[in-house]
Amino acid sequence: MKPYMLSLTEATQAIKKGTLTPREYTESLLERINTTEPAIHAWVTIETEKLLEAADRATETKPMNRLHGVPIGVKDIYSTAGTRTTMGSPIYRDNIPDTDAAMVQKIKEKGAIVLGKTETTEFALHDPAPTTNPWNTHHTPGGSSSGSAAAVATGMCPVAFGSQTGGSVVRPASYCGIVGVKPTYDLLSREGVYPLAWSLDHIGYMTRTVEDAHHMLAALTDSDKQWSLPEKPPRIGVLRSYFKENAQEEVWDGYEKTIAKLWGEGAEIIEASLPESFKLVPDVHRVIMAVEVAAVHEDQIRTKQDDYGDFIRGFIMSGLLVPATAYLRAQRLRGTIIEDMKKLIDQYDCVICPSTTDTAPEGLAWTGSPAFNAPWSLTGFPSITIPSGLAPNGLPLGLQLVGTPLSEWSLLKIAGWCFDKIGFDTRPRDPYTP
């Protein structure tokens, strides 16, 4: 097995044992990038010389931390000291920060190396990046953490940072057939990450296994929690109604098959009825996001309007027209939704729903709907997507698990149990293969 094929957990163990050096691992990832990147376009910036120097330093140092010598992809809205950070916008094409974002600093403290900056939609909103989906390069990988998802799915890196305001960790992870983790709001610091909407922005990341997701969270939170699966099958609340109404047929069929599989493996499956307030989620999320995006960009767009993409320009303008009373009313209703959903989810070990409304749409002009992810960005509840199978069109399907605030560790255990029982281990065919 070539080193780039190792999971995050396998790579860290091999480096710790001395059977793999950070230099060897980095060179294998670069070789993979050189082969795959021309078809995938996952990266904005990779500084090869600087990267190899960091790998050499890690090779010469005894492994002391959880991520020692592991190259990690970083979404291009995270500040990286001395390395270009563009926000996917021509406005910042030459921006080189002086400091690292808090989470970049954290992974460096844990011994990791910044592999490079991954592609993002403009200012992490809608106007697409050039990244393609590794399962079918004529389809979107999702947004806005498009480069991170595609890079992890193709083995260009074992883990990559993303961010989610609507659905930009879970959706691209699902479209690319990998694991995506959006922790509880504010669990991970947003310092040094360019904001989209302050009260909705979440730091998240993507891996290829749930065990890797646990490994990464432990490193980011300075936890000594060890990986394990639940001692007994979980008690799962199944969400339908809104999700069934908005899912495409192949997504819903796959979801029902996954539920049946988990039930057959011993999970306690219970119908969970969404509260009446859940109907307000789309409108409440839209109002809050529009106003906060407009507030972030209000000053800059006055002088650089022509440098913005069509969608984000229009979105900012619409947000500037929303009355303050509407924003405050949306925030009040948000509190009701959070309270109602917490009462519901507290009855189970977690609740589940499809990760996306559809499989990855064809074409690169549309990054897909966040409708099944926005509820958990609005409430701030932790959510995890795991791959659950392939649709008839050969594109991945995802299962989304949701817990109450700060239930990440138990949610990861349940996700690991589901991941193990579903048994999906298919990887995308190399995109350069005829």
Brief summary:
The protein starts with 7 loop residues before the first helix and ends in a 12-residue tail after the last helix. Helix content is 40%, strand content 14%.
Identify low-pLDDT runs: none
What is the CATH topology assignment of the domain at 3-160?
Amidase signature (AS) enzymes
Number of helices in the DSSP assignment: 14
Sheet of most strands? 8 strands, mixed
CATH hierarchy class name of the domain at 3-160: Alpha Beta
**CATH homologous superfamily of the domain at 3-160 - what is it?**
Amidase signature (AS) domain
> How much helix is in the residues?
25-40%
Content of β-strand: 5-15%
User: What is the CATH architecture annotation of the domain at 3-160?
Assistant: Alpha-Beta Complex
How many DSSP E strands? Answer: 11
* Terminal Cα span: 23 Å
Question: What does the radius of gyration come to?
Answer: 20 Å
Please state the structural category. Answer: alpha/beta
Average pLDDT value? 97
Q: Give the topology string: H per helix, E per strand.
A: HHEHEHEHEHEEHEHHEHHHEHEEH
Oligomeric state of this protein: single chain
Basic shape: globular
The side-by-side strand order for the widest beta sheet comes to 4-6-5-10-11-9-7-8
Throw out a few tags for this protein.
434 residues, alpha/beta, Amidase signature (AS) enzymes, eight-stranded mixed sheet, three-stranded mixed sheet, 14 helices
What does this entry look like structurally?
This protein is of the alpha/beta class and 434 residues long. Among the domains are: 3-160, Amidase signature (AS) domain (Amidase signature (AS) enzymes, Alpha-Beta Complex); 281-329, no CATH class. 40% of the residues lie in helices and 14% in strands. It has helices spanning 8-17, 22-40, 48-59, 102-109, 146-153, 170-175, 210-220, 242-246, 249-264, 281-304, 310-320, 324-345, 374-379, 408-422; strands spanning 43-45, 71-75, 113-118, 160-164, 179-182, 202-207, 235-239, 268-272, 350-354, 383-390, 396-402. The strands form two sheets. The protein has an eight-stranded mixed sheet, with helices on both faces. It is globular and about 60 Å long.
